[in-house]
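Entry for the shared binder. Reason: the reviewer on the internal report wants the predicted structure included alongside the sequence.
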Amino acid sequence: MKKLTSDRRTRITRTLIRNAFLDLLKKKKIQDITIKELCEHAGINRGTFYSHFTDIYDLRNQIEDEMAQEVQKAMEPLLHANQNALTPITVTAGIFECLKNNSDLCVVTLGEFGDKAFLYRIINMGRQLCMETYSQYYQHASPTEIEYFYAFISAGCIGLMQKWLENGMTIRSEELAKMTESIIKNGIGFLSQDFHC
């Protein structure tokens, strides 16, 4: 029971620190955020902060690593799926659900003071998977063509994610995944389809 209480307290403290950090990061660069300011914003003391993180960059790295693990987990079905049973929609929906669960970090990452290196890290996580999967389905396509295609769709997905976040994520992640897949498959022809959210 004591460990349960301790674990719960740790989760609450880390959530307070995370929320305060991401709130401050919406307004200023990471190098302009002090531990003192962060602790005041989170309602904790410096000792509490240092019992969880070594510095502000360690905090950012741990938050980003947790999200990267969730994205990796959402991609797992592609790695183990039978080729005939592979459905990109379920994987895309899983990724969008992960992004929804981490919408506070997504808003900051895509914002003025966000960590663009982390954004490219997430994009690169899908690159190899995309190369392998698409080369199976589109055997006539060269690796270079698939690379360019991935660059195009990943930039488009970032735009879709920004729009989704701006609109308060009112569309369910599954619907957004279907829309994304339809846009990828059909390009501008998507607009003339009978597809409604």
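Summary line for the report: Residues 96 and 161 are 8 Å apart (CA to CA).
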